[in-house]
Amino acid sequence: MEFLLTTLVMTVTPGTGVLYTVSAGLSRGPRASVVAAVGCTLGIVPHMLAAITGLAALLHTSALAFQTLKYLGVAYLLFMAWKTLRDRSALTADRDDAPRSSFRVIVDAVLLNLLNPKLTLFFFAFLPQFVPDGHPHAVLRMLELSGYFMLLTFVVFAAYGRFAAAMRDHVIARPAVVTWLRRVFAGAFAALGAKLALS
Question: What is the pTM of this model?
């Protein structure tokens, strides 16, 4: 349950994948938003595999290297909190009713996540919190948790996109609400960093 709740906090935090899915929903409707969510979820796989491979090697070779990586993860999560708090950008989407193939939408979404190095760092910072020291099947455990993460990512992104598609004719900027949400997300990143540092 703790893993699922933490994953939910991470997936609902607006990032490039969420913005792409919301933009697809606002500009091209509900079907495009779901297709974009599929593409963003597939784009997680290379980062997940890279992180699991590296973590598995560290778990079996060097406790010092693993601790160093853990504190780099802490620094990354605190950086994300600071960046989220300072972000003042607004979500905008130009209405675009030109048809686009599902393949093109998925390719764009996969590339968006594939070219986002923060995802690999996220997995390095995130997975160790839920794999106990000396776990006999650490790699399988990380694959299982990553599968849950991907499933929840798809569900959350698709929900964002479908909501955006439903509101595409009624989009109203609410700066106060956006500011409040950013503060909540920044606080969540900072709390996760503190938890990792103390674990």
Answer: 0.66
